[in-house]
Amino acid sequence: xxxxxxxxxxxxxxxxxxxxxxxxxxxxxxxxxxxxxxxxxxxxxxxxxxxxxxxxxxxxxxxxxxxxxxxxxxxxxxxxxxxxxxxxxxxxxxxxxxxxxxxxxxxxxxxxxxxxxxxxxxxxxxxxxxxxxxxxxxxxxxxxxxxxxxxxxxxxxxxxxxxxxxxxxxxxxxxxxxxxxxxxxxxxxxxxxxxxxxxxxxxxxxxxxxxxxxxxxxxxxxxxxxxxxxxxxxxxxxxxxxxxxxxxxxxxxxxxxxxxxxxxxxxxxxxxxxxxxxxxxxxxxxxxxxxxxxxxxxxxxxxxxxxxxxxxxxxxxxxxxxxxxxxxxxxxxxxxxxxxx
Length: 341
Hints:
This protein is an alpha/beta fold. It has five helices and 38 strands. The chain has three domains: about 5-90, Udp-n-acetylmuramoylalanyl-d-glutamate--2,6- Diaminopimelate Ligase, Chain: A, domain 1; about 105-300, Hexapeptide repeat proteins (UDP N-Acetylglucosamine Acyltransferase, domain 1, 3 Solenoid), CATH 2.160.10.10; about 310-340.
């Protein structure tokens, strides 16, 4: 697979500087690129690498184009250009290339055109697979689940009964969707299981990383709306709702019945409490702990940066004295006011 620069420019909305007929077959970094490859410059701190790159072309903005020693594709947002070219030159195979003879597919399954199912996958009764669905080896698709057009499911994913997944979704290996939420009642110290009777509804153009778990709802549904992207090893509890185009990085968790707005960004290792609401456009930096509802968009942080161990022990000792110090300060303020009066 290869394209000339003129073709690539047309597809990504860039302007060619140099040889329009230059042929490109793959993409690489400025440092590693060789002849026949295209690179990109999205961060000015790497500008010096333009002078030494062996790439046949580089995606740059207008300000950097004059420094480019090779062919260039000039556009306002080179990083977006990189994303579009990477899609164009993507060589990732589909999760499966046919319906494998070892796949177990119930006779009642509705199968659209160009559906592929990998080896040893199990597709249970009443499942609907729309056109272009691709299911990897070893997957389990439970009773009555629905997968929309061109959705791809990588190996060993488990999709429980009644789960609905929209079109153009991508789900990476070992993810579990629709498992039971953590619902129990306590009877004098004994835990009594509450059956989780809802489902999981996932919108269109959603991407979910490897080994992520999304629990089904207790009564209503857990809902992941259009355009959401979830990283690896995320936990989404029962009855959570995540708004359109929200992004979550690895190892973050959301407790049950929380509603997260649209266009939010959740960094890694963030913990979000249950039964709260987070408005649109909130950004949480790494290791933030969200304990209450937020009604104003903005950037929120609470994780404490690391420091040398000896300093941390001193800090920790002082933190444990904060309550005493606060009481003493309050008393001193009262005494000072009394003296002034």
